[in-house]
Design goal:
Chain lengths: ~375, ~70
């Protein structure tokens, strides 16, 4: 390592510009090689130069970084870059000591366009889906009346206004805790994840709404960030995602318990309609009174029936006995010899003994003949 | 009271009580007890609706970024 010499003026150590630059440059060399993403602008390439130069610009906030790359390597890649093309540059920071200019010394460069973002997103989506992060069984029902609602939005976003207005119109007693945070750019994913974590620490928090208005594909990318998507899926309370427009499907929409097409729709989902709630309560009370009365009326009716049957019981008993008696008498009558006489038979007696055969009565003997209505005498011939 | 029921659970219980009463299959004592409990739940829910105050508050500090 190069030694950086300072000149001493009394107590003061003073570096020359050159020594200072070399010192910083040496120190920078200790930093690791990394990938940096940005848009290419101001590309300068000259046949006489050893290196090509361009500026990498951050599309979200315009931050710039100078980049140099060995010309041979750059040409070999045949990237044919135009201004605004998105690239990933692999290199390490360096200081151009002669001019004190800080830049990235790129060793490799790759085009990274929308297609690559989409492909990366698709891979992540498949991965999370295979782990069951988006599974329907994981979805939780939203509370009917959340005690506290967490709302994560940008600080002056229309989305925030829409959700708050929607909630307050429908359900004035709602208690909302708003967490304002970045909803765009490289810090958004981390910030939203952190906001979610902090909201969940609040006591009585029953549901969280993540709301962000529409935006470009890149604007919404933070809402497909793996950390955030996992945080939403494992959140301790149900999460409603209202990010982007109907046609956008950031991964957080898939991980959330419910997806709302707009911030206003999210408001409708998280709070009940106060008027409807009142109506439902009054209906239940009406039914309660009716139910109690009906229950009582049923008991009274049943009691009345029992009493009536009880009153009828003795008469019924006598009636039954009488019928049994009649039946017995009938059977008795059927068996009596009288019934036989009624049918035309007669009983013949000689000396009060029933004559059962021809030999039991002699000629000239007096006999008694009994028919149905009496007796008369006769003589055997 | 150790833990107050939520509006939701009170409303659910009220509606279950209504269902049981409407079925007419309850004993008289039970029906009266259910009715009393139902009225109590109704008053609780109504009180909740009438007393609740809307509130919008900000999370204490703006969430700038996640801790690394």
């Amino acid at each position: 390592m190069m030694k950086v010499e300072a000149t001493a003026y009394g107590d003061r150590k003073v570096f020359s510009v050159s020594a200072f630059n070399r010192g910083i440059a040496t120190w920078l060399q200790r930093l690791p090689t990394v990938w940096v993403e940005g848009e290419v602008t101001e590309l300068k390439r000259h046949e006489r130069w050893q290196s090509v130069f361009f500026t990498l610009k951050d599309p979200t906030d315009g931050a710039c970084l100078g980049v140099s790359m060995p010309r041979g390597q750059f040409d070999g890649l045949r990237l044919e870059l135009a201004d605004g093309d998105r690239v990933h540059a692999y290199g390490r920071p360096e200081l151009y000591a002669a001019r004190g200019e800080f830049r990235l010394r790129a060793l490799s460069l790759e085009r990274f366009g929308l297609g690559d973002h989409l492909a990366a997103l698709e891979r992540l989506k498949r991965q999370l889906a295979s782990e069951g992060v988006f599974a329907a069984e994981r979805k939780r029902a939203l509370p009917v009346w959340p005690r506290k609602i967490g709302l994560i939005t940008g600080n002056d976003a229309a989305a925030k206004r829409d959700v708050l207005t929607g909630i307050q119109t429908r359900f004035p007693p709602a208690h909302v805790v708003v967490a304002e945070t970045y909803v765009q750019g490289p810090r958004a994913a981390g910030a939203v994840t952190e906001a979610l974590r902090r909201l969940c620490e609040l006591p009585e928090l029953d549901v969280v709404v993540v709301a962000r208005g529409g935006g470009s594909f890149e604007d919404l990318l933070p809402f497909s960030d793996e950390r955030l998507v996992r945080a939403i899926a494992t959140c301790t309370v149900p999460v409603v995602s209202a990010v982007g427009h109907e046609q956008d499907t950031p991964l957080c929409d898939l991980a959330a318990d419910v997806r709302a097409s707009t911030p206003t729709a999210a408001a409708r989902l998280v709070v009940p309609d106060l008027g409807e709630l009142h109506e439902r309560l009054e209906r239940a009370r009406g039914s309660l009174g009716r139910g109690a009365r009906r229950s009582l009326e049923l008991k009274v009716a049943r009691l009345g029936q029992a009493h009536e049957r009880l009153g009828r019981a003795p008469a019924l008993l006598v009636e039954r006995r009488r019928a049994a008696l009649e039946q017995a008498a009938g059977r008795l009558r059927a068996l009596s010899p009288k019934a036989t006489l009624n049918r035309g038979y007669a009983i013949v007696r000689a000396n009060e003994t029933i004559v059962r055969s021809v030999g039991a009565a002699e000629t000239g003997e007096r006999i008694d003949v009994e028919v149905s209505d009496g007796r008369f005498g006769a003589r055997v011939e | 009271m150790s833990s107050e029921p939520t509006f939701e659970s009170a409303q659910r219980e009220l509606e279950q009580i209504v269902q049981r009463l409407e079925s007419g299959a309850t004993e008289l004592d039970e029906a009266i007890a259910l009715w009393e409990r139902g009225e109590e739940l109704y008053r609780f829910c109504l009180g909740k609706l009438d007393s609740a105050q809307g509130k919008i508050e900000q999370l204490a500090t703006r969430v700038e970024a996640a801790k690394p």
